[in-house]
Amino acid sequence: FMQRGLDSQTKKQLEEEEKKIISEEHWYLDVPDLKEKESCIIEERSFLRCEDLVYGRMSFKGFNPEIEKLMIQMNSKCKEEEIEEDDKMEADVSDEEMARRYEALVGTIGKKFLRKRDQRVLKDDDEDEDDEVEEGNSKTRPSKRAKKMFLKPQD
Amino acid sequence: MAAERGAAAEALVGQVVLPGDLLLLPAHYDEDAEGERLRLSAGAAPQGRLLCGPGLRRSGAGLLVTKCGLLRHRPAGGGAFWVDSQQKRYVPVKGDHVIGIVTAKAGDVFRLDVGGSEPASLSYLAFEGATKRNRPNVQVGDLIYGQFVVANKDMEPEMVCIDSSGKSSGMGIIGQDGFLFKVSLGLIRKLLAPKCEIIQELSQLYPFELVLGMNGRIWVKAKTVQQTLIIVNILEACEYMTAEQRKQALAKLSGN
């Protein structure tokens, strides 16, 4: 245990000594100006960044509908055309329907993941409204509910 | 060697430049103290950096021309200068979309011939939706449209068929049938220019599909073999035809 500590200490000392040595002997360029110069001009070997080239895959007159969609997509990235409206038009399910279904869906799936106690509470809430409850249930209900609370021992 | 006197870059735009010409940049790009003073006084310093495109190299006083061709300039987005030159041999460049032919399968990697000095490598995981168990169905002799992710003179070029977000966006194996042929690189750039007349006129003729690779390869597919061959012949010939000759040829075809 102590040995490991010693090793780390010696390591730290060695590192500090190394850093000192390096910082004294380290050669560094005293030319921050050069960096500024370099940032003005970028060298580029690709024509793609110089000229506005279109995407290489094309299809005409409906030969390949997927590629025609792709063409519109890729070429409008540069020009920012009104693609958002097209997306809304093409949706199969409208937003309202989606919201309605999602609302119902959340409830049903949420019930699945409740713990047992909470599920019972839910069921009780549902069954409270029903009058046709068996007596057995009514008997067990208060006892189960009573179990949850701390019962003082009767003297 | 006596140093050549450089000419102002903007004066030579659109003219022929030869290797060895020195182009002086306007004052606001200069890094001398005079340049800085000018920058401060004239408030119109361009924002962003100057792009020095293919055919040009940065040298102390300005830009050095390394290829012969026409000098082009784009003032937008910080400005860009490049040399529009003609060549048939392709040199792999990072980010270029090219058509490659699969020549060999070596374990997990495919070797593709892209027309450069070395075959490019393509990993089988570089396709959309590919996992170790779900391998793409690529055979020797297939055509693949992909982009370079590593391409310099020191290393073997590497290609991928997905973009940075993991989607294939049109890249991958090119389908069955169709015709692959080679043209010069200048024609490809002309065809890929926005609103290219040749492509617009051709699109009026027949329904067809076209894939253009920056390595000079074009793949065409139309409904019948005859239509495919017609399109191939037009694309090959339109490099040396004037616009009128092209329109005459297309008029004959659409008349037939």
From TrEMBL, chain A:
Q: Which domain of life is it from?
A: Eukaryota
- Looking at the Swiss-Prot or TrEMBL record, what is one Pfam family this protein matches? MPP6
InterPro entries listed in its UniProt record: MPP6 (IPR019324)
What residue spans carry the Acidic residues bias annotation? 124-135
**Disordered as annotated region, ranges:** 120-155
Task: Give the Basic residues compositional bias ranges.
Answer: 141-155
Q: Which GO BP terms sit in this record?
A: maturation of 5.8S rRNA
Name of this chain's protein: MPH6 phase
Q: What is the lineage of its organism?
A: Eukaryota, Metazoa, Chordata, Craniata, Vertebrata
Q: Which gene encodes it?
A: Mphosph6
From TrEMBL, chain B:
Where is the K Homology domain positioned along the sequence? Answer: 178-226
Any one Pfam family here would be RRP40_S1
* Keywords from the named record: Acetylation, Cytoplasm, Exosome, Isopeptide bond, Nucleus, RNA-binding, rRNA processing, Ubl conjugation
UniProt KW Transmembrane keyword: no
Q: What are the residue boundaries of the Exosome complex component RRP40 N-terminal domain, all occurrences included?
A: 15-86
Could you provide one GO biological process annotation from this protein's UniProt record? poly(A)-dependent snoRNA 3'-end processing
Q: Work out whether the entry's keyword set contains Transcription.
A: no
Gene Ontology cellular component? cytoplasmic exosome (RNase complex); nuclear exosome (RNase complex); nucleolus
Q: Show the InterPro entries listed in the entry.
A: Exosome_RNA_bind1/RRP40/RRP4 (IPR026699), KH_dom_type_1 (IPR004088), KH_dom_type_1_sf (IPR036612), NA-bd_OB-fold (IPR012340), RRP40_KH-I (IPR049469), RRP40_N (IPR048541), Rrp40_S1 (IPR037319)
Q: Name one GO molecular function term.
A: RNA binding
Spell out the Gene3D superfamilies in the cross-references.
2.40.50.100, K Homology domain, type 1 (3.30.1370.10), Nucleic acid-binding proteins (2.40.50.140)
Subcellular localization, per the record?
A: Cytoplasm; Nucleus, Nucleolus
The annotated subunit structure for this chain is: Component of the RNA exosome core complex (Exo-9), composed of EXOSC1, EXOSC2, EXOSC3, EXOSC4, EXOSC5, EXOSC6, EXOSC7, EXOSC8 and EXOSC9; within the complex interacts with EXOSC5 and EXOSC9. The catalytically inactive RNA exosome core complex (Exo-9) associates with the catalytic subunit EXOSC10/RRP6. Exo-9 may associate with DIS3 to form the nucleolar exosome complex, or DIS3L to form the cytoplasmic exosome complex. Exo-9 is formed by a hexameric base ring consisting of the heterodimers EXOSC4-EXOSC9, EXOSC5-EXOSC8 and EXOSC6-EXOSC7, and a cap ring consisting of EXOSC1, EXOSC2 and EXOSC3.
Family the UniProt entry places it in:
Belongs to the RRP40 family.
Name the UniProt record assigns to this protein: Exosome complex component RRP40
* Organism name: Chloropsis hardwickii
Classification of source organism: Eukaryota, Metazoa, Chordata, Craniata, Vertebrata
